[in-house]
């Protein structure tokens, strides 16, 4: 692809490095004190330059961290849940206080625009609020016993050490969803952030540590392990880790799920998405276009919930394509710290190559590149900025079946809603989905059992930007896990069914007599 719109980035790697280190120090992190010998360079996608060098740890140290977390669990599980909630309350306050510092780190490490980086931190604050309330609502049921003088009930107990494995694109919020809930549930956490984005992880963990110290909570409730896949092996394999909550690619899920299953561990998997929106003839197109552009081009297409497929009724396809293409041409691509920028960098050379390969494959399959796809030169060879791409496709193609983690939106057309739903569900993944319509029948069909097969099904909003109050996750190769709100907390606890006999008899269930 050709290069376009030279817009030299005035910010230097050195300025970004200083910005990151200031934020880290303010959050209480000393980056020189991590153990281990292997060094990891943290690069900013803004320039491609190195902003920090950290020590990586190996499997032995990860195992030690799990052991410490297990010891912490043995103390933490006996602290009353509402008291555990107080720790999460303090964490939420500290996150609010340091909102801008954390957002700065996300900006430097991931390349999110300021508003989205602040939004990610807000999501962390929101889940803390949610978890504080939850700490007084970890309720079990009481069911009628079939036997006289008996009570049948369920109690929920802390589970143990939770391994949280998070991806580069939400380097802090996904940890917070898991950890705020895990902590009030009485669990402890060992967190492996992407080794490419460990800085905001260290800062967030330092804030939690400060909260724990202030409230005299046990040590080692949450430990960050900066390590690679080899180092992280004990998180997958250790019997001291009853739950692994992992966010990443479908490939990652396929590697770790059988290992966790082999030891009868639990997994919450949040893997690939290939999210689609159906646009029907009755859709409010002003609203639909705004929703589509944010969902497809926001975060430079690097959310698991990013809109990747548009399934448009043939009567409105031309108009939708024209309007989305026009909106794409108006998007400011470049320095994410610059006011007005809506699309920051891709996360490195591999991400850029994946986008270019997908576009080549789409065109070879008969697709037409209507807008975008070209690299934007900002004066740094190792920084990869692209204009969001819009591609019309004559029919289904292999490339449309895959998640390409960048701003590529494929457009397919349909005639009957049933065909749209078949196209929609005809991919391996099942995370998020949307329909734009003003026809209640169409909306209800999409929401029904015969409609979208995804974990998130929206009407008249895009596929991304879910609130923390709902359960978050998806079906099929997305992995089936649920995190965040609603009753997702139950996965972080173990259930005990209790039958209590308060009579003087011993009636057996099912009327069995044994005498
Ligand atoms: C992710 O990309 O892994 O719904 C998480 C959203 C955000 C979370 C995305 N609340 O887009």
From TrEMBL:
The active site is at residue 270. PROSITE patterns: ALDEHYDE_DEHYDR_GLU. SUPFAM superfamilies: ALDH-like. Keywords: NAD, Oxidoreductase. The keyword NADP does not apply. Its EC number is 1.2.1.3. The keyword NAD applies. It is an enzyme of class 1 (oxidoreductase). It comes from the Bacteria. Residues 38-495 form the Aldehyde dehydrogenase domain. Belongs to the aldehyde dehydrogenase family. Homotetramer. This is aldehyde dehydrogenase (NAD(+)).
